[in-house]
Amino acid sequence: MSDRTFHAPLAWIDGQWQREVLMRVDAQGQWASIKVGADVPAEAVRLEGPVLPTLVDAHSHAFQRAFAGLAEQRDSDSDDFWSWRDRMYGVALRVTPAQLKDIAAQLYTELLAGGYTQVCEFHYLHHREDGTPYEDEHAMAMALAEAAQEVGIGLTLLPVLYAHAGFGQTGLRETQRRFGTDAAWVWRACQRINAAGLPLVRAGVAVHSLRAAHEADIRALQALVGDAPVPIHVHVAEQQQEVRDCVAATGRRPIELLAGYGLDPRWQLVHATHSRPEEIAAIAASGAGVVICPGTEGNLGDGLADLPGWLAAGVPMTVGSDSHVTRGWVEELRWLEYGQRLGLQRRNVAARPGVQASTAARLFDACVAGSARAAGLGEWGLRVGARADFLVLDRGASGLAGLPDAALLDGLVFASQGAAWQQVYVAGQRRAIDDAGRRERFIGTMKALWG
Ligand code: ZN
Q1: E strands, 26-66, where?
Q2: Cα of 88 to ligand 1 centre, how many Å?
Q3: For residue 416, what is the domain's CATH number?
Q4: Is the CB of residue 421 less than 8 Å from the CB of residue 145?
Q5: What pLDDT digit, counting tens, does each position of 195-242 carry?
């Protein structure tokens, strides 16, 4: 990889548009320098549109991409998260490593097109269909790593600790046989992936949920991880039933219980939908972040996170595409704000008058700021030391055409039809955001799975 220099007429740096920006990428694919108002050297690549940082997709279950669109019919009196989950297990029980690679390669290409250049894979589909280990016990994780490398997206693999079927239960249900792990398994997987040193691939760890990992499991994982600088993700408080079950089993609400385990900034609370102000305060004090997945949470009828509460407390935030019914951050940010407007019957809920009046900018900047920690990276965004990942906006796109510069982000999030960009760069290199071969492999796998 050679050094490259890019010139942008406009670039989003530290929460505002800057003009005539010269950005140099070093041999490692990171930003070496970013200068505003600079002269343009002859060798610079002139980018035609405004440059935006990308975002981390902080929550993905790649295999669920093969289920998107297949759970939107109701055949009984009620349908909720738990009935969806039973149907989703139908896919989880059948996908092979080769099929997972095909699904993930298509998904990761779509995520690049959706403006994400790093994906955190909350990976719990570990074992063979019959529940016995693969010859290479990390075969499924390696299939995800191969897909990410083929596509050229950054990947944070999070092998998941999944030990119990529910609160107060020991062991797993038969339909969860591919998921079962203990703390030692998870830490071994994390160490192996990091030791492999695959370009753009790193690992952290995850705890499936407080219902699937009890206090002793979580304490064991914390002891193994020690102070290693790896992200630690956990699903928490996604469903009201989970809150009730947690209170019945432990006397505490899920976020309250989790906060008692000694969290720190490595921890990322996925969903955190059902919270109370004192729980938000406890998480804010710990430095942990939240990962909100508005598209999936809407699809599953989870409920609305307390966005104003999390923002006001200054808790680091990211978004995730989770079940992949949505695959771009523009749509996630739009749903994030619209959920609040519908619930509160107010407008511009996320905006912060006098500090950041633009709703889209407030949400986008919060996610840029939360991205590095969620993915286990040192830096993120258009700043020296961060990986040189960016998008080039098309000012002629329908949601942006004719808008003044100051309104570009709001136009992108609230008035665009799809992504208003064609160019996506990772580590200073342009990536394909559509690939006919990958799509064909995905279609072949879908036919094999669904007949
Ligand atoms: Zn999830």
Answers
A1: 31-36, 45-46, 51-53, 55-60
A2: 12
A3: 2.30.40.10
A4: no
A5: 999 999 999 999 999 999 999 999 999 999 999 999 999 999 999 999
Q: Are residues 431 and 359 in the same domain?
A: no
**208 Cα–ligand 1 center, Å:** 8
322 is catalytic: yes
User: Measured in angstroms, how far is the CA atom of residue 332 from the centroid of ligand 1?
Assistant: 15
- What is the reported pLDDT for 201? 98
- The type of residue at 106 is Q
Compute, in angstroms, the gap from residue 42 CA to the centroid of ligand 1. Answer: 47
Kindly report, residue by residue over 9-56, the tens digit of the pLDDT: 999 999 999 999 999 999 999 999 999 998 899 999 999 999 999 999
Give the environment of ion ligand 1: residues with CB less than 5 A.
322
Residue 158, strand partner residues: 122
Please state, as a whole number, how many other Cβ atoms lie within 10 Å of the Cβ of residue 451: 5
138 lies in the same domain as 274: yes
pTM over 0.85: yes
Q: What integer best gives the mean pLDDT of the chain?
A: 96
The reply to whether 389 and 292 lie within a common domain is no
Ligand 1 center–CA 322 separation, angstroms: 5
Q: What is the pLDDT of residues 371-386, one digit of tens each?
A: 999 999 999 999 999 9
The catalytic residue among 7, 61, 271, 274 is 271
Residue 137 Cα to chain centre, angstroms: 25
Q: What CATH number is attached to the domain comprising 285? A: 3.20.20.140
How many structural domains are present in the chain?
2
Local confidence band at 1 (pLDDT 50, 70, 90 cut-offs): very low
Burial pattern 242-264, b for ≥16 Cβ within 10 A else e, equals bbebbeebbebbbbbbbbeeebe
Do 121 and 204 belong to one domain?
yes
Task: Judge whether 311 and 362 are in contact, CB under 8 Å.
Answer: yes
Identify whether residues 364 and 393 lie together within a single domain. Answer: no
User: The tokens of 187 are what?
Assistant: 């830490």
User: Is 445 inside a domain boundary?
Assistant: no
Same domain? For 263 and 218 the reply is yes
Q: Of the residues 322, 365, 389, 410, which is catalytic? A: 322
pLDDT at 3 exceeding the cut of 80: no
For tokens 């305060």, the residue is 281
What is the whole-number distance in angstroms between the Cα of residue 3 and the centre of ligand 1?
38
